[in-house]
Design goal:
With about 190 residues, the protein is α+β, with helices and mostly antiparallel strands. Helix content is about 15%, strand content about 40%. It has one domain: Lipocalin, CATH 2.40.128. Strand 5 and strand 6 form a beta hairpin. The termini are far apart.
């Protein structure tokens, strides 16, 4: 009888253990860029600014779409902003929020909900929509601009908690060759 009760209770106990929230990885902290350990932290050297389909050439837009001069200016400014690695950054991550402080002197940064819902954000170079979520032990932050620039950043911490790795991928429905090589930034924990 006791064996039957234990067998019946085991799934309930295992379900309760599985339902417990997992501890968050130690992403919260102050991080300093380690250029030597990084791969293209500021992105690859650009062959030139992106051009719309009217511009032709290898960096031109795909068939069926084009960007005007002002759209291309915003596209390239946004790309430059998000391809450039911050030398230092502060991160605060909870189960529901993700905050990035890029310049403590100017108090500039971003605050997001980690619910994977679109959030309209005004950036220094124009509007963008962000979606942020926990993806297992890492945070995935996606942004898309009205000019179809799509950037995905993933933030993960090393097993010992001493380094943060940020990978950046980018593409566009309107402009070819946005990013053809890996951007992998490694940051060392400062606090």
């Amino acid at each position: 009888m006791a064996l039957r009760l234990a067998a019946c209770a085991l799934p309930l106990v295992l379900g309760a253990v599985a339902a417990q929230p997992q501890p968050l990885p130690p992403i919260t902290g102050v991080w300093k860029l380690n250029v030597e350990a990084s791969t293209n932290p500021d992105g690859p050297p650009p062959p030139g600014a992106a051009r719309g389909s009217r511009g032709g050439g290898e960096a031109g837009g795909i068939a069926g779409g084009s960007l005007g001069a002002e759209e291309l200016r915003r596209f390239n400014a946004m790309k430059t902003q998000f391809f450039q690695a911050p030398a230092m950054m502060g991160l605060q991550a909870t189960a529901t929020d993700f905050k990035i402080l890029l310049d403590p002197a100017k108090n500039t940064g971003y605050a997001h909900k980690t619910d994977n819902k679109r959030q309209a954000v005004a950036t220094p170079v124009g509007p963008a929509e962000f979606r942020v979520k926990w993806d297992g032990p890492r945070i995935r932050r996606e942004l898309e601009t009205p000019e179809t620039l799509h950037i995905v950043e993933e933030y993960s911490v090393s097993a010992d908690g001493k380094q943060l790795v940020v990978t950046v991928k980018a593409d566009s429905r309107m402009v070819r060759n946005v990013l053809q090589t890996e951007i992998r930034r490694v940051y060392d924990r400062q606090q």
